[in-house]
Write a structure and sequence with these properties.
This protein has 912 residues and is an alpha+beta fold. It has 25 helices and 31 strands. Strands 12-11-10-15-14-13 form a 6-stranded antiparallel sheet, with helices on both faces. Strands 17, 18, 19, 20, 23 and 24 form a 6-stranded mixed sheet that branches. It has a 5-stranded antiparallel sheet with strand order 6-5-9-8-7.
């Protein structure tokens, strides 16, 4: 404010005391207060502010000039000393390395040779001495003849060690800077020393030569500084009008007291829109920041209407502006009408009555708006937790500073709440994250005396206006309750979440920032908010329960674990859809002869009906695979089954037919390394070769299951050992944003960079293709092929002669002994005897026996007949009919597998 008043006298309309009297005298006699002669005397006297500033400025400049002169002198001396050190070292090293010095040192009279050369070098290099000495420090040369032959004064040990040394010492010719360097012969041996030096008197000569220049510069700087100080003081004298410190202090105190004591806000803005002054009332009404003065009015946080008015400088009379929860009347007038500086001054007063009326109307509007937002913003998803979070996010900070939602744990799982059970903190939202409330996911049991406990017991809301005076609330957790109060939370409303007769949990509204406690009107608003949220939370709970039931049904219909087999290394993933359970399924089915069947299917649609249909189809595939049917024939039977299911459900108006059921069935043989694949409306399998190349197998596609009328075709794939066969459902490659061709190409890229193991392949594929919210189920199977080693396969052709049975038994016994399975010799001979005898008697040629050493010992007998043997119980009088009975008793499993040209009867025995 001193700066503002010093710019021109019209800035202050009233000046009390001596200043006001002086101004009246000026107006009376018409003479200016400012006289150059009087101003000069005021400056020199030091009584005015300008005089004191001039004296202080002059003292500071004088001290700075003296300090600069001393620093420059010291710097010159230091530089001269450094120059002396460098020159003495250079002269000594040059003389030591000069030709003939080493020979002179070894001559009978070194002084005669070196003294003239040393003196010549001294005069040429402008140093005070050049001394040559032996390794004991005895001088051979010196400017003073009487010093030759005496001990050298100085440090020579480093030079004897081969390192030069420079020092400042008290020598025979006074204080000096000297350097000592070694003289070395060609093999590096130190044979003498050379010292060169300059006395301190000569060193300081350079500094003394430069001293007049330094002093002249200092005097010039002092003269400039004095002139500058005089100009600044003269300018300050004009600005302060010759007022002394006491007068200015008293004027400022009176002005400040009046300005900040008035009950109206005063704001002064200059012509550029910069806020020059705001009194206490203006700061309070507008909530101005501490650094508002000096900033543009558009940048100090004012509302746009008020900021535009103050920056425009236009005339305003009782213009009403809404600022926060206040209605302010603003009057503004320009300051340049009477010759003052450009700008404006505005006065602001608080309209109390209008504010109260507007506050009540605004509160009603806010509550209606909050209830409307609750109706459209809560319950956007069928997720219990997310619905609770939406309630807290709506209420903070518009209604409360912190909101917590605690639900019974059974509600989160979709069940009915247990009034005696524990609650879990489901959602927490606040204006700050460090409040000492129970954190999210905390398991809580509220005591009966707490507001939450009373709300749960009575089903009614509870208001605790002052938490620090509520012993029932503090009994919940004494330590945490103290922390909550110390944090600043002082008022609480608890409202039970009621859905009909069920109490799902409790909602707590906490207040800390607003000093007023919650009132009864706010209690009613909180109850209405929670009532609307309770409907959405109960809907989400019901959906969660039905969804969990459907997921449980679906999980129960899917395989719990994969069966043991040696043909394939299998990894799988199953990801249900976010919107509900679907009809995707998969299976790994061991078959006879060490073979394994892989099946992937999909029933289009979601819900319990799709899951139940999927279970029926999966059971049918299990049954049909037990018949050892080729893949195309199995799909044909499955197609007929789906057609019958559609016919049965067509009679029920509430059931929908099975539309869009697809399936892929593949059988892999580890002996031949051949995989037979057939598919009904399903995406093609992907094949990853051992070298990492990826291709989609060319398998003929048949119509989806249930359409009927068309046969299914199969394809045979040759799979080298280590190949990976990838089966999947359409949820992995199809979505709403991309076509299936894009999905297949992305799947190909993911498979090309996946690791060798099936687990790595599954992980890489899902990371690349899994959507954020899957709209359909995803089933994925990755199977890496293995081959049965040739030394574990034995085959024998059987001639059409009963005597060949004995030869087969002998060959089998030898092979079992080679495999280390002698314990199985008797049972295996008996099984093969019966099977070969049946083939000779009832089958057709050619006949062949194959034995496989896998996880089981597998015996197979092939013949060209398609007649299937049947197990029967022979009576006591029957002569035959006991062969297959014996086979069934000795083998763990047995059966018949049909081929395009004949059949195979097989039997499996467990290994010992």
């Amino acid at each position: 404010m001193v700066r503002l008043m010093g710019r021109s006298r019209p800035r202050s309309p009233q000046r009390p005391g001596a200043a006001a009297s002086a101004r009246r005298r000026q107006q009376r006699d018409g003479r200016s207060r400012w006289r150059p002669a009087a101003g000069l005397r005021s400056v020199l006297s030091g009584r005015s502010v300008a005089g004191q500033v001039f004296v202080l400025h002059l003292v500071i400049v004088l001290l700075l000039v003296v300090a600069a002169v001393v620093a420059l002198v010291l710097q010159v001396q230091r530089d001269s000393t450094q120059e002396a050190r460098n020159r003495s070292l250079a002269v000594a090293e040059t003389f030591a390395s000069a030709p003939g010095v080493v020979e002179a040192l070894r001559s009978p009279d070194p002084t005669a040779v070196l003294q003239p050369r040393a003196e010549a070098a001294r005069e040429l290099a402008n140093v005070d001495f050049v001394v040559v000495m032996n390794t004991d420090g005895i001088r051979y040369t010196h400017p003073r003849q009487d010093r030759i032959g005496k001990k050298f004064v100085g440090t020579i040990e480093p030079a004897l060690a081969g390192e030069p040394v420079v020092e400042e010492v008290e020598g025979t010719i006074g204080e000096l800077v000297q350097a000592v360097v070694p003289v070395k012969d060609p093999d590096g041996t130190v044979v003498g020393l050379v010292s060169a030096g300059i006395t301190t008197e000569n060193v300081g000569g350079a500094a003394e030569d430069q001293l007049p220049l330094v002093m002249g510069a200092a005097l010039a700087a002092l003269a400039l500084a004095v002139g500058g100080a005089a100009l600044v003081s003269r300018r300050l004298l004009r600005q302060t009008h010759g007022l002394g410190p006491h007068e200015m202090t008293r004027m400022y105190e009176h002005h400040d007291a009046v300005l900040h004591a008035v009950r109206e806000g005063v704001i002064i803005v200059d012509g550029d829109g910069t806020l020059m002054l705001a009194n206490d009332e203006a700061n309070r009404l507008f909530s101005l920041p501490d650094d508002a003065e000096g900033r543009h009015v558009l940048d100090v946080g004012l509302d746009p209407g008020t900021a535009d008015l103050l920056s425009s400088g236009r005339v305003a009379t009782d213009e009403v502006h809404r600022v926060g929860d206040r209605l302010l009347a603003v009057n503004q007038r320009p300051t340049d009408r009477a010759g003052g500086p450009p700008g404006s001054v505005a006065t602001v007063r608080d309209s109390t009555e209008l504010r109260a009326l507007s506050g009540r109307a605004e509160a009603s509007r806010e509550r209606l708006d909050m209830l409307y937002r609750a109706g459209v913003g809560i319950g956007t998803s069928l997720d219990v937790t997310r619905t609770a979070e939406e309630l807290t996010e709506l209420a903070v900070p518009r209604f409360a500073d912190f909101v917590t939602v605690d639900l019974f744990e059974q509600v989160l799982a979709g069940g009915h709440p247990d009034a005696a059970g524990a609650l879990r903190r489901t959602a927490v939202t606040g204006i700050a994250g460090e409040a000492p409330l129970y954190p999210r996911d905390e398991k809580i049991r509220f005591v009966a005396s707490s507001p939450q406990g009373r709300s749960l017991a009575t089903g009614r809301p509870v208001l605790e206006p002052r938490l620090s005076e509520a012993p029932g609330w503090q009994a919940q957790d004494v330590e945490r309750s103290g922390q909550v109060v110390d944090y600043g939370i002082h008022s609480l409303i608890t409202v039970p979440l009621r859905a009909g007769a069920l109490v799902l949990g409790v909602v707590s509204f906490w207040r800390s920032r607003k000093p007023e406690p919650f009132d009864t009107e706010e209690l009613a608003l909180a109850e209405e908010l929670v009532a609307r949220a309770a409907v959405s939370i109960d809907n989400a709970r019901r959906y969660t329960r039905e969804h969990n039931m459907a997921v449980t049904l679906q999980r129960s219909l899917l395989p719990r674990s994969l069966p043991e087999q040696s043909a394939l290394e299998v990894a799988y993933r199953y990801l249900p859809a976010q919107a509900g359970v679907g009809g995707d399924w998969f299976d790994v089915l061991p078959l006879s002869g060490g073979r394994v069947a892989l099946v992937v299917g999909d029933v289009v649609g979601h819900g319990l009906h799709a899951a139940a249909t999927m279970g029926r189809l999966r059971t049918a595939v299990h049954n049909f695979s037990a018949l050892d049917l080729p893949p195309d024939e199995l799909l044909g039977l499955l197609d007929e089954l789906v057609g019958r299911i559609d016919q049965d459900e067509a009679q029920d108006e509430q059931s929908a037919p099975v539309t869009g059921a697809t399936c892929l069935y593949a059988v892999y043989d580890p002996v031949s390394r051949r995989c037979t694949v057939a598919r009904a409306g399903h995406p093609p399998p992907a094949l990853v070769r051992p070298d990492g190349s990826v291709e989609f197998a060319d398998v003929p596609v048949g119509p989806p299951l249930g359409l009927g009328g068309l046969p299914f075709d199969s394809a045979d794939l040759e799979l080298p050992e280590g190949s990976r066969l990838v089966l999947y459902t359409d949820g992995l490659v199809e979505d709403r944003e991309h076509d299936i061709d894009v999905g297949l190409e992305q799947l190909r890229e993911a498979l090309s960079r996946a690791g060798d193991s099936p687990e790595d392949t599954c992980r890489t594929v899902l990371e690349a293709r899994r959507p954020a919210r899957a709209a359909d189920d995803i089933a994925l199977i990755v199977a890496r092929t293995r081959a049965l080693p040739a030394d574990r396969i034995a085959e024998w052709p059987v001639p059409s002669d009963p005597a060949a049975v004995g030869e087969v038994r002998a060959a089998v016994a030898r092979k079992l002994a080679e495999w280390g399975l002698e314990e199985l010799t008797f049972a295996t001979e008996l099984i093969l005897s019966e099977l070969v005898t049946n083939a000779l008697r009832y089958g057709g040629t050619p006949i062949q026996v194959r034995m496989l050493h896998d996880r089981h010992l597998i015996c197979e007998v092939y013949d060209s007949s398609s007649t299937s043997p049947h197990l029967r119980h022979a009576t006591m009088t029957d002569e035959g009919g006991r062969g297959l009975f014996l086979v069934a008793q000795l083998a763990e499993r047995w059966g018949t597998r049909y081929l395009p040209a004949g059949k195979v009867i097989w039997a499996e025995q467990p290994l010992p």
